Amino acid sequence: MQEGQVGKVGELLAIIGVAGETVDSGQSVVGSEKPRPEAIPAKEPATTHHPLPTPHDLGFISPVVAKIAAEHGVNLSQVQGTGMNGRITKNDVLAFVESGKKTIDHGPQTVVSRPSPVVTPVAGDQLIKHTTMRKSIAQHMVESKHTSPHVLTVMEADMSRVSKHRAANKAAFERDGVNLTFTAYFMMAIVAGLKAFPQTNASWTDEGLLVHKSINLGMAVSLGEDGLIVPVIKDADNLSLLAMARSVNDLATRSRNKKLQPDDVKGGTFTLTNHGVSGSLFAFPVINQPQAGILGVGAMQKRVVVIPAKDGTNEDVIAIRPMVYMSFVFDHRILDGASADWFLAKVKETLENWS
Fold it and tell me: For residue 251, how many C-alpha atoms fall within 13 Å in the half-sphere facing its CB?
């Protein structure tokens, strides 16, 4: 190449040798040492869903060319290079984009999917076919997790006052044919919380937050190995403790006897699940869509707690109290941490100050 002449990318400029060394047609040095292969720069990670062909297919692709192709979704295998040895240049890609041909690439797209893991049975394994109820539960649980950002907050409540009230009134309720369970108290406390913070008794819509006028409480009832079902107590805010306990008894009995009517499981605006009946202390329940949250109640246990000093004294007291953990899972689109805690604190306050 002569001095002042414009060289093309990749064109041989000069060969450095020793005096008297023989040079062939201008492409390689004649000698005992073999020419080293040209290093191929590493390709930048593609930011497009269309997989770019490898440098082996297209030759050297400069970082600038790769970036422009990625930004415009251009498949470089469809671009005719005009550079040396057919190399694709920046102008080649820009010309291709301006021609409007970038849309002709209909190659495979990257799809994010979560296929079920393939399980290969081995000798001795047993396949138990899914029941209709189990399939329905699975579908609803997966849909709920995909719909709502689930967040958990936990508080514990001192059930001393509730326990004393239940012990004092259990016999009277039995004379009316009602079994006074702790579930009825939790339901009444939830009603108090929903009344104090109505946004917890709501559903998310694209247009806005739909706050429900009625308080319809669902209660999860275990059916053993068959799964669970959630019957609904309608207009729970209009019920006394006796009426609430009677409704709890009725729906639980008809659930286990498979005598619920379709309307019994519709219209819930909030749900209680008492996972403590099987000994569980904590849980992370799944929201029953399209509700704003679900309250899980753990097993009641007597624990040593510190009772803060009262009446201006500095003498705290250590006592044994029947305590229960309450796990509130809420839809973070509807409630924030503070508003969720306000609701749960009201439930706690209602239980601890029962009279």
Answer: 26
